[in-house]
Amino acid sequence: MPIRLPLFRKKVLDLLASSDETKVMHVSDTPESVYRFIGEVIEKTQPDHIVHTGDLADNIKLERRPELKPLYIGAVRKLARVLKSSGAKLYVVPGNEDDYETVNEFFGESVVDPGTVVEIEGTKLALGHTWKDVVNLNADFRLYGHNFKLIERGLNGVLGVNFILLPSRRTYRVKYPGGTDFDRGYKMWRGL
């Protein structure tokens, strides 16, 4: 059964689905609870490129709880199925909560280092896990996640699923489902 979307989110997804421009989709800091949502967004919009800027299973804080690695591996396996089934060109930047060996196992040649700049249809995208990875890079857009910081020409994947349409360079954000920040463990930020 598909997820029911708020009207505004549905309108943005319909607009993206009807666009004949090249679509770059950007996500970051994804807890397992949003994998199905991400799959449905991919199915609806058919992106040509997908960028994940780290913390692939953000509900599992591997940096602080290394004993959770078996759960982390299972989660990354699920996310890999969702992202790879899209047929889009993938770019995956490992984050502080990621295990590099596991990320490489499931994403191989799609893995890029923080601070990598890629060019898609003449548009330069700086890719990093944190804003510090990209803030000083020469790029048209800076894609990152990790926290809620906003920077010039930056698209923060914690705040929502970002889309860049090329060649127009128009950007859109689709909000994650309610409860995503809680699933990430951001209880303190929400005042809980």
TrEMBL record:
User: Which residues are in the Calcineurin-like phosphoesterase domain?
Assistant: 23-117
Tell me the superkingdom of the source. Answer: Archaea
GO molecular function terms attached to this record? hydrolase activity
In terms of InterPro entries, this protein maps to: Calcineurin-like_PHP, Metallo-depent_PP-like
Annotated Pfam families:
Metallophos
Q: What is this protein called?
A: Metallo-dependent phosphatases-like protein
Q: Which organism does this record belong to?
A: Thermococcus cleftensis (strain DSM 27260 / KACC 17922 / CL1)
